[in-house]
Structures are given as structure tokens and as C-alpha cells.
């Protein structure tokens, strides 16, 4: 693979840390649990969308865009990071927000919503749950074109093949770091949402013949809808990289037992796991994605889902600002 042939902006200096969670691993009595600190990517604070935006913003600039449009949920980390990247590049940024839980949008809300306003978002339009988000963004794009702007539309989560290249690159970064440190992983766990992270990692680990199994933990959909989404995006990403060999079906593995009542709604295990990581390792997980996914990983390890691994890696995809908005989930809960 030759990722260097794709235009890319650099938003983070060097690599994110690959850390051994010594206290947590000792407390749980094994296996060794390691973490890839993509919560420490750049931008107020970072998260997985920063890696996707390195390729997406480079494409927007190459096309002469002066404005970006994207979409997400009310506490979208992706919207916050797209806006941050736009500010860094001197572009306008317009957001279309899907109110997935009715009545959940509030202009005064904290967390990511506060950061939208702090960074001076150019516009926010709120649409009801299950709206056709691509069509809604096209509507915004048409209006902006009529006003003489050159908009570039970034799909939800930055999850198209170009965005997923960010996580192909991350897979290569992890393999190089693991080699530097002399650690071999028996499994890697990540959140599986709009799927750019899961699909990019899967293609990167597979194309490098790493042999490391990857498990995606769903945070919104059941397996019968999530697996085809990840598989399709992985196929598109491989094609963009001129990989002709078909991807094996077994490459994409999802687990769907950890969503609870729905996207962004709390589970008891999420609350306990966020507290556990804060108390043992001084690491903040988030309530919507990494709290549920980490809780899922611990449960799968306890149940022997991946045999008896010696060493596993969790991808920390970020999301910390949402923790402050969802503080109410923790009141009296642990
Ligand atoms: C968007 C997001 C995810 C999910 O990543 P996808 O590439 O959309 O599957 C996971 N964690 C956090 C914190 C996110 O913001």
C-alpha cells in the first residue's frame, strides 16, 4: 500500500501513545490490556475523526472548497472536530444535527454543543430522527452555492473510503509501534459506529498480513445491519487502495450485545467502566462510545470470547467532551 499518494493534511505531531494499562490489568488479573490513545489526537481535545479529516480536508482544499458541511447527533464529536479542522484551515463550517432522541437538542447544552458555539460555528440546522442526512446536507450545500460559496460535503462520521484511510494509516502506526516496543497483540477491539474506524483498521491490519483479529463493538445497530455497513466500506477502502484481492468475509467481526436501550443511552456497565478507568488509570472514556465498547471488551474477555489472549489492545477513539454533558448518567450510579 502506498498511502503517501493521497493528499493529506497533518493535524497531529508524531504518533499517539500506545500504553500498557498496568494497574487495570493487575486489578483484573490479566490479560495485559493496552490502549491506543487516539483521544490524544489534535484539536480541542482530539478523537478518531481527526485522522479521517486529514484526508477529507486535504481533498476539500484540493477541490477549492471554502466551506465544509457535515452532520451528526446532538453531541457529535465528529461535528466538533470537523469544525475545529475548518477553523484551522480558515474555512466556513455548517452543521446539520439529527435529533435522534426527540427533544434532546438544546442550544444551551454543554459538552460538544458548547464547543460548537465557542468555535463560532457558521450555522446549525436541526432535523428530526431518521432524516435523510445526505439530502439534508445537499440542501444546505445548494443554499450556500446560491450565495456564491464552494461547499464540500463530509458524510456523517467522516466515514467514506477517503476518511477510512485515516484508520488504514492508524493500523500501520500500531504495527510499527508494537514492533518498536516488542509487543505482539492477540486481539484488537474498537468501537463500530459509522464504521470508518472499524473498516480502515480491518483493511490496514489485513493488507499488512498482521494476523491480528479485530473486533468491532457496536454502539447503535444490531449485527445484521452493522456488519454489511462495515463490509461495504472496507471493500470501498480496499478498492481506493487498488487492492484487487477480495476481502475475506470473516475479516469483519461485530458484537452487538452492549448497546443497551439505544445510541447514547446509558448502561450500568458503561457507568462502572468509565469510573473504573478514571480510578485505575486516570483515563477518561466517554459515555456514548468508548465507555460501552470498553465494557463490552471486558465482558468478552471474561467470557473467553477470544480464547485466552495474553495481550489485547483497545482503541481509545476519544469523545471526552460528551462526558460533561452526560454527567447526569453518573449521579448516584456508582
Ligand atoms: C465517531 C466515534 C466513534 C465511532 O467511530 P466510527 O468511525 O464512526 O465507527 C467512536 N468513538 C468516538 C468517541 C466517536 O466520536
What does this structure look like?
Helix 1 packs across helix 9 (268-281), helix 2 packs across helix 6 (161-181) and helix 6 packs across helix 7 (196-207). This protein is of the alpha/beta class and 334 residues long. The longest helix has 21 residues, at 161-181. Helix 3 links the parallel strand 3 (67-73) and strand 4. 42% of the residues lie in helices and 16% in strands.
List the main descriptive attributes of the protein structure presented here:
single chain, 334 residues, alpha/beta, Rossmann fold, 2 domains, six-stranded mixed sheet, four-stranded parallel sheet, 10 strands, 42% helix, globular, binds pyridoxal-5'-phosphate
Number of domains: 2
CATH architecture of the largest domain: 3-Layer(aba) Sandwich
The succession of helices and strands, N to C, reads: EHEHEHEHEHEHEHEHEHHEH
Tell me the number of helical segments per DSSP (H or I, 4 or more residues long).
11
Secondary-structure-derived class: alpha/beta
How is this structure best summarized?
It contains eleven helices and ten strands.
List the helices and strands and how they pair.
Layout: E1 18-20, H1 22-28, E2 32-37, H2 49-62, E3 67-73, H3 77-89, E4 92-99, H4 112-118, E5 123-128, H5 133-146, E6 151-153, H6 161-181, E7 187-192, H7 196-207, E8 214-218, H8 223-240, E9 254-255, H9 268-281, H10 290-302, E10 311-316, H11 320-325
Parallel strand pairs: 2-10, 3-4, 3-6, 4-5, 7-8, 7-10, 8-9
Antiparallel strand pairs: 1-2
Helix pairs in contact: 1-9, 2-3, 2-6, 3-4, 6-7, 6-8, 7-8, 9-10
